[in-house]
Amino acid sequence: MMLDEGDNKRYSTRTLCCTCTVQLILLVMVILVLAYGVRYPVRVTVKDATVRRFGLAGTALAYDLSLTVSVHNPNWAMRAEHAAPLDVHICFAGRRFDGARLAAAGSSVKPEESDEIRLAAVGERTAAALLGSDGVAELVKETTAGQLESLELKLSGELTYRPVHVGRYKIAVTCPLRLPVAPAGTSGVVVLDKVIKCH
After folding, report:
1. Rounded CA gap, 88 and 174, in Å?
2. Which of 73, 105, 106, 158 is most deeply packed, by most CB within 10 A?
3. Is the peptide bond preceding residue 74 cis, with omega within 30 degrees of 0?
4. pLDDT tens-digit profile of 84-126?
5. What mean pLDDT comes out for the span 23-37?
6. CA distance 73 to 195
7. Cα 177 to Cα 54: distance, rounded to the nearest angstrom
8. Smallest Cα–Cα separation from 46: which of 67, 74, 73, 64?
9. From the CA atom positions of the chain, what is the Rg in Å?
């Protein structure tokens, strides 16, 4: 049995419609997989760092610094929800001397947005107990040189990605704060205007 010209046109049109429909379904599936099936981890950066004081005052570590921690959610359909508090430890030469809670469990960062948290650390505490003799020696060396090389932030927490992903994903990043510091005996304020990437 042979198809006439009209039947051939109807068959071609149906085939074309079916092909287009299948391609559209596949495209929607790919978009949904990229939106909800692929999880991109949050990115953490530090900016607007200001050092008003960091050094020895007699036998004490005296510090006054502030900065902004930015937690960016690169996912375009999923929010990043804190399953556990986001905590930060401020360390010098590997030893913690201050810290804070940046975000409570249950708070979240919307898709393709950033949560920016201002952190201020001010104090005066016994240097030897905090840093040990090696840390104190390193502090003297770096403040004399006018550049803090051993100062860092350590962030820890857990995230879940909603509404689809189950399970918890740990945040454990370090932000190296290589900051200039005013020479000993001066009261200058030093501001760092570059963005520091955490890893």
Report:
1. 10
2. 73
3. no
4. 999 999 999 999 999 999 999 999 999 999 999 999 999 999 9
5. 67
6. 17
7. 13
8. 67
9. 27
Q: How many CA atoms, within 13 angstroms, populate the side-chain half-sphere of residue 150?
A: 20
Tell me the CA distances in angstroms from 153 to 38, 96, 113, 199, one per residue in order.
29, 9, 22, 11
Q: What is the tens place of the pLDDT at every residue in 139-156?
A: 999 999 999 999 999 999
Task: Name residues whose C-beta falls within 8 Å of residue 133's C-beta, 6 or more positions apart in sequence.
Answer: none
Instruction: Compute the distance between CA of residue 46 and CA of residue 197 in angstroms, rounded to an integer.
Output: 7
d(CA 54, CA 74): 34
Write out pLDDT tens, residues 173-194: 999 999 998 766 566 688 888 9
Neighbouring CB atoms inside 10 A of 92's CB total 25
* 138's tokens: 């390193």
158: amino acid identity, one letter: E
DSSP state of 72: E
Name the phi and psi angles at 176, rounded to 5: -75, 115
* Nearest 10 degrees: Cα torsion 58, 61, 65, 70: 170
198 C-beta neighbours (distance < 10 Å), count? 19
Percent of the chain exceeding pLDDT 70 equals 86
Amino acid at 73: N
